[in-house]
Amino acid sequence: MRITGDGTTGGIPARGEGGPYPLHGGAVGAARRQPETTPTAGPVGARTATDRIGYRGPTACAAAGITYRQLDYWARTGLVEPSVRPAYGSGTQRLYSFRDVVLLKIVKRFLDTGVALQNIRAAVQHLRGRDLADLERMTLMSDGATVYECTSPDQVVDLLQGGQGIFGIAVGVVWRDVEHALSQLHGERVDTGETLVGHNPADELAARRNRAV
């Protein structure tokens, strides 16, 4: 899919069936996403294990490589909001999920390479709706004006050969970078408020995969 951020659907490249997929930003400005820990209908254990762990602002900043000023601005403007717990005025602490921190790092990389903010916003919305397992094997390519989702090396090559992929972000690599960073920082259990020292999100994700087998 392609992200243009202007609310229009861009054309899909004709190079090969099944992708790469150009993203578009038709959903920009939609209602804000509900916190990931909000109970929903479905079987017990359907929520991911990582939803039970939150990370405070300074921890999210350290793992994503951003400043607290950036974190605060992106939260206030709705670019990347904390999905575990937003700030409710003075004295409350935002809590970010593992997925949130991955998105923060992706946003930082997009901004560093000059992608338009409206396209980044649309990309964040798209990534919010994808399963964690999808994110692990996804590559985002861009020429600065458009963002493409690629799910195979062949799709990446197609874009590079067509001049549409000036740079790319391997989401799985960002994922592992964030995992490593958070494994050396503090997390917090959402249900009890217990501080987890040196918590590794990969442990929770592995447990989820094992349950799905």
Can you describe what's shown?
39% of the residues lie in helices and 14% in strands. By secondary structure, the protein is of the alpha+beta class. The strands form 2 sheets. Strands 1, 2, 5, 6 and 7 form a 5-stranded antiparallel sheet that branches. Strands 4-3-8-9 form a 4-stranded antiparallel sheet. Helix 1 (57-64) crosses helix 3 (98-112) and helix 3 (98-112) packs antiparallel against helix 4 (117-128). Residues 7-17 and 25-48 have low confidence and may be disordered.
Q: What's this, in brief?
A:
By secondary structure, the chain is an alpha+beta fold.
Helix content: 25-40%
Shape call: globular
The oligomeric state is single chain
Provide the succession of SSEs. EEEHHEHHHEEHEHEEH
Q: Give me the secondary-structure category.
A: alpha+beta
* Whole-angstrom Rg: 17 Å
What's the story with the biggest beta sheet?
A: 5 strands, antiparallel
User: What percentage of amino acids are in beta strands?
Assistant: 5-15%
The overall average pLDDT, rounded, is 74
Spans where pLDDT lies below 50 across 5 or more residues:
7-17, 25-48
Q: Tally the helices.
A: 8
C-alpha termini separation: 29 Å
How many beta-strand runs? Answer: 9
Can you tag this structure with a few keywords?
213 residues; alpha+beta
